[in-house]
Amino acid sequence: MGPGRRAVLFLAVAIVVQFFVTVRAYRRWSALPWLAVPGLPAAAYFLYLYSRTGDVMAWKHAQERGWYRDLTAPWHTWTTTWTAAFDHVQTTGYAWMFQAELVAVVVGLVLLTFLVRQRRWAEATYLGLSLLALGTSYWFLSMPRATLLWWPLWVGLGVWTLRHPWVRTTYLCVVAPLSTIVALTFFTGRWAG
Q1: pTM for this entry
Q2: What is the pLDDT along the chain (193 residues), one digit of tens a residue?
Q3: In whole angstroms, how far apart are CA 147 and each of 53, 57, 175?
Q4: Residue among 137, 145, 148, 150 nearest 109 (CA)
Q5: Per residue, what are the HEC states of the chain?
Q6: Distance between CA 61 and CA 111 in Å, rounded?
Q7: How far apart are CA 53 and CA 74, in angstroms?
Q8: Of 49, 103, 95, the residue nearest 193 (C-alpha)
Q9: Which residues, other chains included, contact 133 with Cβ-Cβ below 8 Å and sequence gap of 6+?
Q10: Rounded Cα distance, 62 and 39, in Å
Q11: Domain positions in the chain
């Protein structure tokens, strides 16, 4: 199950958390059954997997075989990725990829800490589940791609750029050349190493 599909499940859990955080203030328990709606696509997906493969967890088993996505302690995942990024055991392309994975994890942890300190429980739940799911495999993989789905990051960045115009300028000066490099890498067929 890729980051996009997982993000839907994490968002559903975050919606449940948000419901229970706010239900005390508004006393709208009659809305509780609507919390089942976000789970319907996930249930349909698992039913589809079972009907096609006979295995509800076929996506997990495929990732274990193809990408070494076995359950691993986060500190082992960090160590394995760090070794791949900096110990000259990978080609330059892969080393850069693993370095980007580490940067994305650090950004995620900083954002998670901020959200918890601000008591933004639903957002923290969403981000925490994303970090946990991608941070407990053999090495970090897909973390930079997952950051595209971290809506608390992008909403926060948008608010920050409105309050501090220099942030917008700095962001554009960093992202424009980086996006060009990533696009050139992708369009020349070297994206996967």
Answers
A1: 0.79
A2: 555 567 777 888 888 888 888 877 677 777 788 888 877 888 898 899 999 999 988 888 887 787 767 788 899 999 999 999 999 888 877 888 899 999 999 999 999 999 999 999 999 999 999 999 888 888 888 898 889 999 999 999 999 999 999 999 999 999 999 889 888 878 887 665 4
A3: 31, 25, 14
A4: 150
A5: CCHHHHHHHHHHHHHHHHHHHHHHHHCCHHHHHHHHCCHHHHHHHHHHHHHHHCCCCHHHHHHHHHHCCCCCCHHHHHHHHHHHHHCCCCCHHHHHHHHHHHHHHHHHHHHHHHHHHCCCHHHHHHHHHHHHHHCCCCCCCCHHHHHCCCHHHHHHHHHHHHHCHHHHHHHHHHHHHHHHHHHHHHHCCCCCC
A6: 31
A7: 30
A8: 95
A9: 6, 10
A10: 23
A11: 3-149
Structure tokens given for 175: 């992202």
Per-residue tokens: 53: 């493969």
Contact 3, 146 (CB under 8 A): yes
Start-to-end Cα distance in the chain: 22
